[in-house]
Design goal:
Layout: E1 13-17, H1 21-31, E2 35-42, E3 46-52, E4 59-63, E5 74-81, H2 84-93, E6 97-98, E7 112-116, E8 122-127
């Protein structure tokens, strides 16, 4: 049996559909503290926009949905945080639509909470030491 080879080394970007890239940049940079890594025009008035937590390898590409696609999805994206309680409180204070409480299911499940971006896309913040 032959094994398929690959030169893939990491997940580079995960695409999140947004209605307005400028509003999305504002949310991810100002409310979540991410940095803007790319904002590159291409095609006919389109843009490739990437944001990420400082020092993170993988970015979020904030993309305009293709025809027939929508925003407000369950992205299945989980962010890792070293202080879930501080991030939860800080996001609520900055007006982020986040769960009212941090979920605590007990060991070995880490504490976590869901949050939603400006378009209602659902994301998860998971506490890890």
């Amino acid at each position: 049996m032959t094994q398929a080879g690959s030169h893939i080394t990491q997940v580079g970007a995960v695409m999140v559909p947004v209605a307005d890239q400028d509003r999305a940049i504002e949310f991810y940079v100002e409310k979540l503290g991410f940095e803007k890594r790319a904002d590159i025009p291409f095609g006919r008035g389109e843009r490739w926009v990437e944001v990420a937590p400082v020092d993170a390898a993988t970015t979020l590409a904030l993309v305009v949905p293709r025809e027939g696609e929508s925003t407000g999805i369950d992205t299945r994206i989980a962010f890792t945080t070293s202080d879930v309680d501080a991030d939860h409180a800080g996001m609520l204070a900055r007006g982020v639509d986040a769960d009212a409480e941090v979920m605590r299911m007990g060991s070995p499940v880490p504490p976590m909470f869901f949050l939603r971006d400006q378009d209602g896309n659902t994301l998860l913040a998971v506490g890890r030491d």
